[in-house]
Amino acid sequence: MKDTIKPICIQVEPKDVNFVNRIMEGYEYLGVVSTLDRKAGILIIRATPDTVGDVREILAHLPIEVQYIEA
């Protein structure tokens, strides 16, 4: 079976966790955000193959620092 979920793991400042979640909500859940470690600001965003590019584009233009990490 082909994998349909494209997880994106990122790290932001802990104070920005809710901001990233609200942005994804505002974009009609192009990706679903889950917090892996709130104190460290580690999030996973689950996107589909059709939306993963859009999610990465949004993350690139946020006014906060976003670091891609390995999960």
For the biggest sheet, the summary is: 4 strands, antiparallel
- What structural category arises from helix and sheet content? alpha+beta
C-alpha geometry: globular
Distance between the termini: 22 Å
Indicate the mean pLDDT.
93
- DSSP strand count: 4
Order of helices and strands: EHEEHE
Under CATH, the topology is which? Ribosomal Protein S8, Chain: A, domain 1
Gross CATH architecture: 2-Layer Sandwich
CATH hierarchy class name: Alpha Beta
Runs with pLDDT <50, length 5+?
none
Using only CA atoms, what is the Rg? 11 Å
- The order of strands across the largest sheet is 2-3-1-4
Tally the helices: 2
Number of structurally distinct domains? 1
Measured by DSSP, the beta-strand proportion falls in: 25-35%
Summarize the amount of helix as a percent range: 25-40%
InterPro entries: DUF4911
Organism: Sporomusa sphaeroides DSM 2875
Protein name: DUF4911 domain-containing protein
Tell me what the structure shows.
This protein is an alpha+beta fold and 71 residues long. It has one domain (6-68): Ribosomal Protein S8, Chain: A, domain 1 (2-Layer Sandwich), CATH 3.30.1370. The chain contains two helices and four strands, in the order βαββαβ. A four-stranded antiparallel beta sheet has the order 2-3-1-4, covered by helices on one side. The longest helix is centred in the first third of the chain and has 10 residues, at 17-26. The model has no long low-confidence stretch (mean pLDDT 93). It comes from Sporomusa sphaeroides DSM 2875.
